[in-house]
Amino acid sequence: MVKTETGLTLLELAVTVAIVAIVSAIAIPNMIGWVPKHRLQNAANDLRSELQAVRMRAIRENREFAVFFNPTNNTYQVVDSGPNRSYDGSTPGSDDVTLKTVVLNAYRSGVTYGNGNATTNATSGGGGFPPDFVSYTGNAAVFLPTGLIQGMGYVYLTNNRGDAFAVGTPTLAGTVVLRIWTGGNWSQ
What we know:
alpha+beta, minor pseudopilin epsh fold, 5-stranded antiparallel sheet, 28% helix, elongated
């Protein structure tokens, strides 16, 4: 009986290492470019989900709930209107209760309020952007017990690469939409 040895030759091992190196050289730069946009998209999706959840909670609990946007601190807060069932905002003596605070910096990759490379706003008329990139009156999306929203608006988010997303309620019906800047227009 003849014994045969199996294994890799040095040439086979070198070819395998070369293939892995080539694939890595192609894949890693693509992944590095993909990560900031993915993080921004996660932040925008989370905001959209939060707005939808707040709307549903306003209906379920039959009182106003709001999402208050604070571009100065790069945060937003989910706010319960409290015992008086009406969102008071920053009114002194308000009984509003902050339920949750989201810090956009936690998404990393420079996720912040901003328009990035977008040149027009997400409304059908286009035009410029609000100075703080939040078009809701008083920087709050206030949902009524009926599920309607007190005023239409958008929030604009960007990252350190200039990608841009708009999350908002384009109608008083309170339907929440997410739009992405594609280089020439906003698409859903």
